[in-house]
Amino acid sequence: MSVQRLIRRNSVYYFRCVIPRRISAVLNRKEIRFSLKTASFGEAKRKLVCVNLLIEDYFIKIRQKIHINKYSSNFTVRDIMKFNTNKALALADEYASQTKGDKRLSSEEMLKSYLNKTETNEDADAMMTLYHSEDISDELYYYKCLCDRYDYEVSAEKELKLAIESGLCKYEDLGTSILVQDLKKAHQKKIELKRAATEDEDYFDVMDVCAHSGKPKSPQKETCSKHYWEDVYKAFKSDPDNRGLSQSTMQERYLRLGTVFRLMDLKNVEDISVETVRNLRRKLMEYPVNCRKLYPKLSPEDAIRQGKADGRKTLEVNTIDGYITALSSLCSYAVKEGYIANNPAAGQGMKKTWEDAKRESKARLPFNEEDLERTFSVASYPKREEDPTRFFIPLIGLHTGMRLNEICQLTVDDIQIAEGVNVINIQKDGDKSVKNRDSERLVPIHPNLVKLGLLEYIEKRKKAGANVRLFDCSKNGRGYFSDNFSKWFKRYKDKAGVRSNVNFHSFRHTFAVKACEANINDKLIDALAGWSKGHTVGNISMQNRYINELSIKKLDKAVLSMAFSEVQPLIEQYGNQNPVNTKEESEGV
Fold it and tell me: Are residues 6 and 46 in the same domain?
């Protein structure tokens, strides 16, 4: 059940209140949020009654200060008292404990008991009506000025009704005598100013001067009640629900959202609608690959037109779906925080056609026998002593099914012995990342890698110190260690005459093919390669739970049964040689 100003984070309830525009501009903040320090929904609701009235009282006092000092040039935000959350919580705790089980205690009675109010009910109602009337008056003022829908013939009462029906304010049951009086004065002043203005631009500049806060404002101040997508994303990044996501994943989402909002030509999350998402999807289907690199000076629309003219390849279905998913995640967070009512991007992802699935399967081909022989040809393959990084990484990819970044980020401490078996420990630790929960795993080292001198190389690297990188791979700006190696491998395999529709990731698919040829069951293949094909219950991966119950001996037995005859020439070349030197030793360091 949703309750206004009440949110839940990690089983604890929080108070969250959006600060009204006039006060927000003075305080230079958009909301007040703090923990109610309870996991009980009933207790949180009782505390909320008290805190709500404390907040309203706080806002009234600030409005009075603003009104009294609006003509003072020395008035600053430091003159505004801060909201005392500790005092509010103490009063809320007392109120919640004394009203437990008593649903009849009204907010007026609480106001007298816990805020020491001396006003009569009529006085309190008058104060609240004044507070609400000023808020509505501001809403109507900006609504007319900036939407250009002001009609001087319409009465203030009808304008109020229009605002309420348009959802511009939430106060429907008000005494409107003060409101109407204020509106009429403001309307008359605006008429006079409009007659004196010569240009629409000047009109809006002058109109802002007569706002109720008494401070000049630009028309852009309308957006102060809205939320710029980058600001929402910063809050989204720090949300506890995202604590398991890697920095590179969040950075990738940020880059995708930048493209999304440029294509939608929007800046605020409140302006997103289902129609804008549909238009976005159509634009993404025409969006050229590497568009910003190809056309850095063109607008998205011009880039799309130029891409068509140049015959550029457009985004794949999976990529488009990734953009929509990034937007949907942001919108879901905005809904949770109360910025928007619903998620317009939900269910707007791309559905794959039969042609898409067929094209995707072709794009993920494994290496065939000829590809592997060309890749690991003794004549063209990098020499172990000269470049152990380029020598070992493709071989590890073939024999373990590891992702390229998983290999490039390895440290010497990741090579371990478990149950008497040499294993590679793939884990998220420090600046090392994994794709998902199931990617953390132990992979036994294939005997071919031992014959090729991997363990000797590791022992040499350990002499450089603990936690040293196993290979010479540097991290790029997005947090990946694999960027430079990926570019080199593409150049190498093209030069070796390997098919164009395979890449380093094809080693994972080749590993799966080799495992099937060895009659290894699907669960063991998933455990070795870190594929997440299992289901989850809550945040617990059933696949991961199954994998954890597998013994290293079973995994090692599966690895031993896999044959990689294509690397036999390399084994014959290096199997009987002296232990491999590290790069430092090769260079004489």
Answer: yes
